[in-house]
Amino acid sequence: MAMPEPDRLYIVEADREARYDKIRGRGSPMYGQPTKVVFLLAMLKGRALNRFPELGPKRDGLVRSSYLQPRDKALIYAVAVAHTGSLDVLMDKKKTFEIAERYAAGGIQPLMEEVFDERDATNFERRLELQTRELLSKIKLQELPEDPIPREPSRT
Predict the structure, then answer these.
(1) Rounded distance between C-alpha atoms, residue 67 and residue 40, angstroms
(2) How many angstroms from the chain centroid is the CA of residue 100?
(3) Any bridge partners for residue 64, and if so which?
């Protein structure tokens, strides 16, 4: 049986003001972006850099899970599956979210440095696009089972 989904995604408490709010603040190329976008980018950056720290005891709820669209959850699920190497992780939503939270904790500082990198005058969105294309070109598609999403047994 699948575990229920946590009600929110958590971050290190000190990261909210020091990093998330700055990345979304005035003067940032990401000004006005939803918090979940910054979280997802930090998660992907942490995964790309293989940074996976513990959140510690001082955690802060950042994004309610009810605000996540299916495509947002797909990214979270993909990172969890890549981390564990198994689709079984999708049965435990708490573990899936914890994996995303830890990668976001590892990626938020490098993301902030990249967003505000003054040495590279290239537009942040353009750099992000180029990095994404480079990563996608390295991914080799593998055959998936007929139904890659675990489902609860029917009660008939």
Answers:
(1) 13
(2) 5
(3) 8
Alpha-carbon distance of 13 to 25, in angstroms, equals 18
Whole-structure pTM value: 0.81
Joined together, the tokens standing for residue 30 give: 């990401």
Residue keyed to tokens 């000190």: 14
Residues 65, 6 contacting (CB under 8 angstroms): yes
Residue ranges of domains in the chain: 8-137
Give per-residue pLDDT as tens, 64-107. Answer: 999 999 999 999 999 999 999 999 999 999 999 999 999 999 99
Closest CA to 1 of 98, 69, 93: 93
Q: Are 150 and 80 contacting, i.e. CB atoms less than 8 angstroms apart?
A: no
Give the position of tokens 């675990």: 150
